[in-house]
Design goal:
The structure is a single chain. The chain is α/β, with parallel strands linked by helices and 451 residues long. The chain has 19 helices and six strands. Helix 16 links the parallel strand 3 and strand 4. It is elongated. The two termini are 20 Å apart.
């Protein structure tokens, strides 16, 4: 897990006045909060305590998008000069056609120059303050300008978050947007890489940066005859590319097989939570698509994978990100039986009461573990207005035990074995699994835990 562990984010305007890693991630969160509202999902922030803690300003939904030439006029009216010919650097090409620039004697600027970083440092607080002005009609225009300029921030998480929001707004894409997303696909941060790859796969699926990631995927499910264990880990959308924590031999996989570690107390069973994880070479993986159709296909694939190995009842399924939706779909559509489903950072999809009833018939207990203001989940909401699958912020309390941890912004913190050890998560998972066993004391109301 390569994301910073942030316990206390910097709220409001202070995020744009501070410097350092926490400032960068806090700025990105502010931009995502603005972007969700500009895309018409104000309802999400209204019911989100995390947004209140971050002191995110309220802005109305934008119905008329700001053309790039209007943006330049808006900035000039505030005596802000962008040090390049922005309107000449448009393009949707994959990658940007640099020969077009050369033929016009235009050299695309480098996103990460000190000149740009200093410009963003100087301008961002002013534009952010203008979004707070509820007595004028410039708050949304200031928010849009802030998003555009943030693509040149010194912080990669800010550049990628801003580019992802602008792409979700279906604007004509400009060079900085494509460049920031392509660069983010190479990020050392799991969360930044996922935001960039998610977005690029939607707007430029043949971009070389994305194809490079796909080339690292490796092979899919392989046929096998080895006897299966009874528990599995399902990766998220991009986990197959670089983060191998979920595979046999990976960091979290090994930890779950071996816990309790020497620094933590044993649970009541004295048996590692992952002692029965499937670890043969033909372990399950899926195609990692973002669409609901991809996740539905993966659900049928999972059911077929289990049937081929004569697994009729998974004891524990630990699923990351949209891997959790794959497991829920497999339960609803295929009747796949699971004693305990543990979802890490899973974006909640809206499901009907009938569908949840079908899931409850075959899944005994569901736990959703999340961090605060998960940027990937929130950016998924930005796209929900143009997707068939509607997303929400939390799973229904009547169906799912929601556990919230005091870590901010990351989409990968809960895949880190050190976090499991520090917070005693394995012990809680073991306790949840014990309640699915015969003669366990039944519980009718799922719990909501906050660490």
């Amino acid at each position: 897990m390569s994301d910073p562990v942030i316990i206390k984010p910097i709220p409001g305007a202070y995020a744009f006045e501070a410097v350092g890693e926490e400032a960068g991630w806090s700025q990105a969160a502010q931009l995502v909060g603005l972007g969700v509202q500009l895309n018409g999902r104000t309802d999400i922030l209204n019911m989100n305590d995390d947004a209140e803690s971050l002191d995110i300003p309220q802005v109305p939904r934008v119905t008329h998008r700001m053309p790039i030439y209007d943006l330049e006029s808006f900035l000039r009216s505030r005596k802000i000069e962008v040090p390049f010919r922005w309107h000449m650097l448009h393009g949707w090409s994959q990658p940007t056609n640099r020969r077009m620039f050369e033929s016009n004697q235009i050299v695309p600027p480098d996103l990460q120059t000190m000149e740009f970083a200093e410009l963003v440092d100087d301008v961002s607080p002013r534009l952010y303050e203008e979004t707070l002005d509820r007595h004028s009609d410039t708050d949304t225009r200031a928010a849009e300008a802030l998003l555009h300029l943030s693509q040149f921030s010194r912080y990669q998480v800010v550049r990628v978050a801003a580019a992802a929001i602008l792409a979700s707004r279906r604007l004509r894409l400009w060079w900085p947007t494509i460049e920031a997303l392509a660069d983010g696909c190479l990020s050392e941060s799991d969360t930044v890489q996922q935001i960039a790859a998610d977005t690029l796969s939607r707007i430029a699926p043949r971009h070389p940066a994305l194809l490079e990631l796909l080339s690292q995927m490796g092979q899919g499910n392989q046929p096998g005859t080895s006897s299966a264990g009874t528990s599995i880990i399902i990766p998220g959308t991009w986990a197959r590319f670089r983060s191998l924590w979920w595979q046999p031999g990976g960091s979290l996989f090994r930890y779950l097989q071996q816990e309790p570690g020497k620094f933590e107390q044993a649970d009541a069973t004295l048996l590692p939570v992952g002692h029965d994880l499937y670890e043969q070479a033909d372990f399950y993986r899926w195609t990692d698509g973002l669409s609901g159709t991809d996740q539905t296909a993966a659900a049928y694939d999972l059911a077929g994978w289990a049937g081929a190995r004569e697994v009729h009842d998974f004891k524990k399924v630990i699923a990351h990100s949209h891997g959790g939706n794959v497991a829920l779909n497999a339960a609803a559509l295929c009747g796949m039986r699971i004693d305990l489903l543990v979802m890490l950072h899973t974006p909640p999809h809206r499901r009907s009461s009938e569908t949840w009833g079908q899931i409850s018939e075959v899944v005994q207990r569901i736990v959703s573990m999340r961090t605060k203001f998960d940027l990937v989940v929130l950016l998924d909401l930005c796209w929900s207005t143009v997707k068939l699958t509607r997303t929400t912020w939390k799973f229904p309390k009547k169906r799912v035990h929601n556990w919230t941890f005091p870590f901010w912004f990351s989409h990968g913190t809960l895949t880190d074995p050190d976090v499991w050890m520090e917070r005693g998560i394995a012990k809680e998972v073991a306790a949840a699994y014990a309640l699915t066993r015969p003669n366990a004391k039944p519980t009718t109301n799922p719990t909501t835990l906050t660490w």
